[in-house]
Amino acid sequence: MSDERERILQKRVAVECERLQRMSAGKNWREAAGAAVMVAVAESKLHDYIAERDRRSFRAADTVKHGPSGEEWDLGCDEDNGEVFPNGWPPTIARASDCTLVEAASDKDRLAMLREWAARTSAEVRCDARRLTAIRQLIELGEL
């Protein structure tokens, strides 16, 4: 079932398509060309909204490709507020929207990775965002 935002975007596409049909029928080609552009824009916004809404959140131990750097990363914890936390040094936080899934982790591997980060106690990771996020996520899952 579609949500309110999707219905609004669908309506916008329909309105722009009707405008394009009117302009084309009246042979107003300049206006029709502008209407065609507006149809494409409306359809693009609808497509982008649906893709983002339906996108699976990244999880701990997933392998992702970071678009800006071209690097592949294994994630230390689940996506959090639109951000991902790759393993490795230096500690890095990146936008999830800049990443694509290469390989999804199993539920077993996901929990193992979260537990691994939560258990780290050395001074350099004690306040690391990955460790703190992993601890919070394990608590939310009822695993800690």
Structure summary:
With 144 residues, this protein is mainly alpha-helical. It contains four helices and five strands, in the order ααβββββαα.
Anisotropy-based shape: elongated
Overall strand count: 5
Taken in chain order, the helices and strands follow as HHEEEEEHH
Overall structural class, as computed from helix and strand content, comes to mainly alpha
Q: How do the strands of the widest beta sheet line up side by side? A: 2-1-5
Cα-to-Cα separation, first versus last residue: 35 Å
User: What is the share of helical residues?
Assistant: 40-55%
What integer value in Å does the Rg equal?
22 Å
Could you describe the largest sheet, including whether it forms a barrel? Answer: 3 strands, antiparallel
Count up the helices.
4
Poorly predicted ranges (pLDDT <50, ≥5 residues)? Answer: none
Mean pLDDT: 88
Total individual domains: 2
Strand content: 5-15%
